[in-house]
Write a structure and sequence with these properties.
The structure holds two protein chains of two kinds. By secondary structure, chain A is an alpha/beta fold. Chain A folds into two domains: 150 residues, Aspartate Aminotransferase, domain 1 (Alpha-Beta Complex); 237 residues, Aspartate Aminotransferase, domain 2, CATH 3.40.640.10. In chain A, 40% of the residues lie in helices and 12% in strands. In chain A, the strands form three sheets. A seven-stranded mixed sheet of chain A has the order 2-8-7-6-5-3-4, with helices on both faces. Chain A has a three-stranded antiparallel sheet with strand order 9-10-12. By secondary structure, chain B is of the alpha/beta class. A six-stranded antiparallel barrel of chain B has the order 12-15-14-13-16-17. In chain B, strand 2, helix 2 and strand 3 form a beta-alpha-beta unit. Classes of the chains: A alpha/beta, B alpha/beta.
């Protein structure tokens, strides 16, 4: 059976390619199929197009074209960043799997995050050892949406750099940030962020999948993971994905043009979604930072105590609403997401967590429909399990009382809207 | 024949994510049972280069449970499964046998661990999506009958399940006339699994294939492929344990006629083959069984019964002579194609499955 309306609330997992991106991409699949390394003039044009794209993305992130390496997506870019160092690394506990897996191949220190997911720069400072070569902190977490203080962390790294210089120590230290989830709504300027390495993905900004980039400052010497014909300055061999790279550049251009307005629009829709859910399910718990400045505008992490998120996903699918639970990687295994675990969310809440991410196609009507559907799915499960609002409210308050840094007073049915809670627990 | 009474009875139904167990759950609910679905996670290890489909199967099982509005529990049976099915499988192959892991799984997991745990948690019955029928007689005895759909009948895999366990078993799809009907009934109920293909091969190995699986567990060992009739060495193989009686594929003999494995000697690491599909070495009129089990607990009187040596294979008449201990001998009227040692031979009296043994 096909539901009447389809609403995707999982744009952090994938985005549809923008029609303009498709339009600039298509010729490279057919008449401009040339290998940029071939010697004749038509091929040379393809090479120029790749270099023009490189120039475009470099300009948009405030960098020089020479320092941009195109990769097959963000995971590869993260791997390339970690391959640049051999020694000790520092990462935080809610990094994307690709960063955590890379870090696992190094001597490392994994720093804790706060209950709202934020990394404390002072904690990073204490984790850095004299032999630390890389610090990696994701600009925005794709699961609870916190925006990390990367700029502040860059000062910590810079002061360690200065200390080493004074002490005559030669070990370099770099700061890497994976900005894949951020590029659609936040500035990803490398000098503003103060980073040495930056990862971006086309797939998260309405561009093609399997295209990404790693920007590295002049100080960093990248070491190839893929050997061959020496493309991308010898750092990433293999015939350039011309269509993908051209599409990526256009996608990033569009993202930057629309960024401010889109961020505002998404923040409004997200607020509407949060309010819509909390109004219908007063004991719903919203995770992530309360401050809008520290939050990805289009992401809402909401938890329903004692309700299995995996069942909600299926019930919502039947209503045509597609949502995520934690990160997609974690969902296919029998584990609670490492992010929710790291922020200290009680298991009973974590297992009932949905990650809702809005995107360019999302309309206010979509949000209203989704809020209704989510509440409906939660109610159906409550009925099956014999739960009621009063009991759930008490359960949530008890759960949060035991969680570090959390608290919430849940509006009781019949108590009127005066003291309505907003769902935020942290 | 008395029936299991649904009113208020609690059933734990194994839900694999496949078509048959999905319908089993749905039918039990419709009959008025109080149903809890259980996904048995038996094997989650991924072999290099292959992905075990269990995560997708679990997702399908969840979809079915949510659609039916019932609880789904995930029970971790990996340890028992490894000990009683996987290790048994590898060990049997290492000793030159070709085992039926599904037979072991039904005995030790589905009607072993799963049944015990379900009963401990207050179940009155357990159910699965097996094609077979449980008959509860007025005399208080429980019998296993072949499924109504003879083409799908799975009693070949259930012969090691004893009467006591069977008395707690419900097999609702065994009462359905054919598989197309099962799919249609699933579709009618919107269970969303009706288009899934029938599972094929060893359940936990999935698409990997037994060869890849065994080579992950056992060492390759080069040996001779010898012609049965002449003793001539025809080529080399990479481990006698990888070959089974009657096998034709996988013999790399560089052309020539098709050859069949007559027998293997894992001690000497020799594989004997013949080009003669009708070679007397490929036939036998007497088959000895060991590790025999009779569902009713005691052997039937010696006599003529129906015997099956392969899942959905031909039912043939044979004289069955239960012997001392857990042994028996099958005597066929004329020589039948030899069955690989380690396979099951299952004995029927009409529709009723009496038990069986392991071919020696």
């Amino acid at each position: 059976m096909t539901p009447g309306r389809e609403v995707c609330l999982d744009y952090a997992a994938a985005t549809p390619m923008d029609p303009e991106v498709v339009a600039v991409t298509l010729p490279y699949l057919t008449e401009r199929f040339w290998n940029p390394s071939a010697p004749y003039s038509r091929a040379r044009e393809a090479r120029d197009d790749v270099e023009r794209a490189r120039g475009t993305v470099a300009r948009l992130i405030g960098a020089r074209p020479d320092n941009v390496v195109f990769t097959a997506g963000a995971t590869e870019a993260n791997n390339l960043a970690f391959a640049a160092v051999e020694g000790h690394v520092v990462v935080d506990a809610i990094e994307h799997e690709s960063v955590l897996a890379c870090a696992a191949t190094h001597a490392r220190r994994t720093v804790r995050v706060g209950a709202d997911g934020l990394v404390d720069p002072a904690v990073v400072a204490r984790a850095i050892r004299p032999d630390t070569e890389l610090v990696s902190v994701e600009l925005t977490n794709g699961e609870i949406g916190c925006v990390q203080p990367v700029r502040e962390i860059s000062r910590v790294v810079a002061s360690e750099c200065a200390r080493r210089l004074e002490a005559g120590e030669r070990t370099p230290i770099y700061l890497h940030t994976d900005a894949s989830q951020a590029a659609g709504t936040l500035s990803v300027n490398v000098s503003t962020l103060g980073v040495d390495l930056l990862t971006l993905s086309a797939a998260k900004i309405y561009g093609p999948k399997q295209v990404g980039l790693l920007w590295a400052s002049d100080d960093v010497r990248l070491r190839p993971l893929v050997y061959g014909g020496g493309q991308e300055g010898g750092v990433r061999s293999g015939t350039e994905n011309v269509a993908g790279i051209v599409g990526f550049a256009r996608a990033l251009e569009l993202a930057c043009e629309r960024r401010a307005e889109e961020a505002r629009r998404l923040a409004g829709l997200r607020e509407r979604l949060r309010a819509g859910i909390v109004e219908r399910v007063p004991w719903a718990v919203v995770a992530g930072p309360r401050s809008p400045k520290r939050r990805l505008p289009g992401l809402l992490s909401v938890s329903f105590a004692g309700i299995e998120a995996r069942r909600l996903v299926i019930a919502l699918e039947r209503a045509g609403v597609y949502v995520g639970t934690g990160s997609a990687c974690a969902a296919s295994r029998m584990r609670v997401s490492h992010v929710l675990e790291a922020v200290g969310m009680p298991r009973e809440l974590a297992e009932g967590s949905l990650r809702l991410t809005l995107g360019r196609p999302t309309s206010p009507e979509d949000v209203d429909y989704a809020a209704e559907a989510i509440a409906g799915a939660v109610r159906a499960e409550m009925e099956r399990l014999g739960l009621d609002d009063a009991g759930q409210a008490a359960r949530v308050e008890a759960l949060l009382a035991g969680a570090p840094g959390a608290s919430m007073r849940v509006r009781r049915p019949g108590a009127g809207g005066a003291a309505g809670n907003d769902g935020y627990a942290w | 024949m008395s029936r299991a009474t649904p009113r208020g009875a609690r059933v734990f139904c194994g839900l694999s994510g496949g078509v048959d167990s999905a319908l089993a759950c749905a039918l039990l609910l419709e009959q008025g049972f109080d149903v809890t679905a259980v996904y048995m996670r038996n094997w989650s290890r991924d072999l290099p280069g292959f992905r075990c489909p269990w995560a997708d199967d679990l997702a399908d099982a969840e979809r079915v449970a949510v659609t039916l509005g019932i609880d789904l529990e995930v029970w971790d049976c990996e340890e028992e499964y490894r000990a009683t099915v996987v290790d048994y499988l590898v060990d049997s192959y290492a000793h030159g046998y070709t085992p039926n892991p599904d037979v072991m799984c039904n005995q030790t997991i589905k009607f072993g661990t799963f049944l015990e745990r379900a009963l401990a948690e207050g179940a009155d019955y357990v159910a699965t999506g097996h094609y077979g029928r449980v008959e509860r007689g007025e005399d208080g005895r429980t019998r296993l009958l072949r499924a109504l759909d003879e083409h799908k009948d799975q009693t070949y895999f259930l012969w090691r399940v004893g009467e006591e366990a069977l008395s707690r078993a419900l097999l609702p799809v065994g009462e359905i006339r054919d598989k197309a009907e099962v799919r249609r009934m699933c579709a009618e109920r919107g269970l969303g699994v009706e288009a899934k293909p029938d599972s094929d091969g060893i359940c936990f190995i999935g698409p990997v294939g037994i060869r890849t699986f065994l080579l992950d567990a056992l060492e390759r060992r080069a040996g001779d492929v010898v012609e049965w009739e002449t003793g001539r060495v025809l080529g080399r193989h990479d481990g006698a344990f990888l070959f089974t009686v009657g096998q034709r594929r996988g013999l790399d003999l560089g052309g020539g006629p098709a050859r069949y494995v007559v027998s293997t000697d894992v001690e000497k690491n020799v594989v004997y083959v013949t080009a003669n599909h009708d070679s007397p070495a490929l036939f036998a009129s007497e088959v000895s069984l060991s590790d025999v089990r009779w569902i009713a607990g005691e052997p039937p009187a010696p006599g003529r019964y129906l015997v099956r040596t392969r899942h959905t294979g031909e039912l043939r008449e044979a004289w069955v002579e239960p012997g001392d201990g857990a042994s028996a001998v099958l005597r066929f009227d004329e020589p039948v194609r030899r069955v690989a040692p380690g396979q099951s031979a299952v004995v029927y009296d009409g529709l009723r499955c009496l038990g069986g043994g392991i071919v020696q």
